[in-house]
Amino acid sequence: MYSIYDFTKEKLENFFLSKGEKKFKATQIYEWLYDKRINSFDEMSNVSKNTIDLLKENFEIKRLTLLTSIKGNDCEKFLFELTDKNRIEAVLMYHDYGKSLCISTEVGCNMGCVFCESGRLKKVRNLTPSEMVLQILQIEELVKERITHVVLMGIGEPFDNYDNVIDFINIINDPKGINIGSRHITISTCGLIPKIKDFSHFDKQVNLAISLHAPNNEIRDRLMPINKVYKIEELIGTIKEYIKLTNRRVTFEYIMLDGINDSVENAIQLSNLLKGMNAYVNLIPYNETSNGFKKSKKENVMKFYDTLKKNNINVTIRREFGSNLGAACGQLRANYKEEE
Ligand code: SAH
User: Fold this and answer.
1) Please, what's the b/e burial string for 238-258 (b: 16 or more CB within 10 A of its CB; e: otherwise)?
2) Known active-site residue 89
3) Is the CB of 326 within 6 Å of ligand 1?
């Protein structure tokens, strides 16, 4: 049985039409789910008994189980259990411009990036749209505040779960849904080219972030297995085309790894690669785990930054969140033994 939170408004409209009911019921149901935030179909007081029975026959309205949460100064991490006992995490970050939630899109991940802790658990399955939607709904309920920004940068590769991710975005962006503006939503991908192409035909101005992490194939091959399938030139070519078609914002994420990708020469290579593109580079301080990679020294990050600037590349250095919580990027793990 589907969760009611799996359905975009359009799918719900089609459901009602297929049952000989009026399309507007979908909007009515959406208001109960996402505006009034009820927990059971019986609370939908202006909906007819017949319609409620129809909903009960066809949908569940269950929530995720919150196992634990940990709060730091500037972020809070939540661990949820799904109905099949798999576990996922989400991290809420407090920025001066609002509250941004980093959500998981899969149980595990198959991309195998060597620096990433989250990817050590192989993909078990895709998350359904409802499992992504409920991360937002339930965290808003828990902290009693509205989430203003959503980033798909938790566990999983969003473009390896494309259809569910698209439904999820349609649900949270719907004015009658959670109503998060498309420019406040960012999808991060390691670069699945066919899906980037599909995404250029998606009709919303959602931000795209590309996990680049290297200025050439030699380094990227060592860090990210996906580069063996889609070479860096092909990736950059696809992004140029994507920007031309969509005019949307693209960010390149670049983790700074000591002695691996952080030399001035690497910065020059990166500048040449991205020259003339209307894009941003986000330099990411690496969160160290037990895999041996070290974060770049501050002075090397600054030299790298200056070199990009000098070459007219838009660049920012990412603020660090949650490194003391095991909640930082690449540190999310599905199995928190110590919390059992
Ligand atoms: N699979 C998607 C989204 C998840 S990763 C992607 O690859 O983009 C989100 C971001 O966190 C990526 O840029 C990833 O490379 C980065 N990341 C992974 N491990 C990290 C670590 N230990 N420190 C800092 N960033 C990390």
Assistant:
1) bbbebbeebebbbbbbbbbbe
2) yes
3) no
